[in-house]
Protein 1
Amino acid sequence: FNILNILYSMGKLIAIRHGQSTWNAENRFTGWVDVDLSEKGIQEAEKSGKLLKELNISFDICFTSYLKRAIKTLEIVLEIAEKDMNYTKAWELNERHYGSLTGLNKTEMKKKLGEESFKKYRRSWDTPPPRLDKDSEYSSHKDPLYKNLKNIPNTESLKNTYDRVVPYFEKYIEKHLKQNKNVILSAHGNTIRALGKKIFKISNEKINMLEIPTGNPLVIDFDNSGKFLNAKYLDTSRKNEIISNQ
């Protein structure tokens, strides 16, 4: 039994929301805009690397989005943790597209839209903000990063984000966990929120309560059948509650 247990045990998923970005610091809706890490964000990524190094476990494979704030976070983490590894980039792991809210200040938009509409666009399960004009300076349609992507979004709800993140996870990431490999995922608040909905079995009504702090590795363990076992943030001073319906 013990041998079977080892053979069929699952690897750990280490999900890291990128360190604070320059637009996080300015309280702006970012989405698909490719902004860089702030100085604080670099420090958060460095701390994440130290915490992962202290875990003293192997890391077998890494995934990130097309956006440099997630890529740089991963590169800093790997450098600090002294792991020389390649990684896979996927647009499916990008942040949620915030539509016409992109680039706008959250506090100002809350005043303009009112509490109810603001909350609905920002945190509801399936209500996307109004679409971003294709000619906007923040549109991804002219971005060479996405020249091979046919269906570039102009806005997304969390459900839309879930509908690309979770199939990607199931096709490309989950198989490594089932092979008892430890996986690092450096991504975004809504990428990890969408994945958390699946893993922690959170309802549509409660998913808005799952907050993902920047630059704080979330280590998720599974049982042999792939069911969520437990999860913990490595930086306990900045941890958030893990909501689970399991």
Note: DSSP finds eight helices and six strands in the chain.
Protein 2
Amino acid sequence: ISRVADAIAAYGRDALECTNACFLGGPGTGKTEMAERFAKYCGLRGITKTDKIVKFSAADLISNHVGETPKLVREAFDRADGGMLFVDEAYSLTQGDCNDYGKEAVNALVEAMDRLRARVMVVVAGYEDEMLEFLRSNPGLESRFEFSVRFEGYTDEELAKIFCHFSTTKQFLVSDEVRARLPETMGMVRRSVEGFASARTVRKLFDSSVIAAAQNHPDLRTIECVDLEEAVSEVEAKPRCRRVGFA
């Protein structure tokens, strides 16, 4: 990503025919975080007029009213003018019952990317298989995204470091025993938690550890083994199902 940005900074925006990117990877692998850093980097290097990033989901760009979807897409580009437009889970545009409206959004997206090529950088993100299918849904879409970046996820050791990073940011200490157990714990959580979302699940695990610590030793700003064990039980618990009835 930085190499692409450096080339543009050295030779100008017109040096590359396409500056848009597609981020491919599972949940919690850093796609949104990287897009935010990319936007800031481009702003600092003068590649874009501003370091702002305007984030949308696919649902934000689709209207159930005929003719409204292109307007939503144009408004999204107007808000991102001079910076970066980030569309998360972009593959949703071509899935589901609103497929016709989604195709309308994709057509508007292609048109706007051409018309505002020099003013808006576009990054789309989502799961790899679904995103590849999304790019093939329109003959002109795939060629508008020159760069694909794959986010492979994190090892258990890296997830442990992310947990410790959260603790440092929030000014909590992590006991030596917890630090030693974290990689193994991350592997266990990875296997047992339904819908495991990498760093996002680690964030939930950390928050649950803090809540447990407040109950177990509120006078100490420290994550102990008992806190971690309770947090693991919390994130492993399946959501309670609600019964839906009609009166």
Note: Residues 240-247 have pLDDT under 50 and may be disordered.
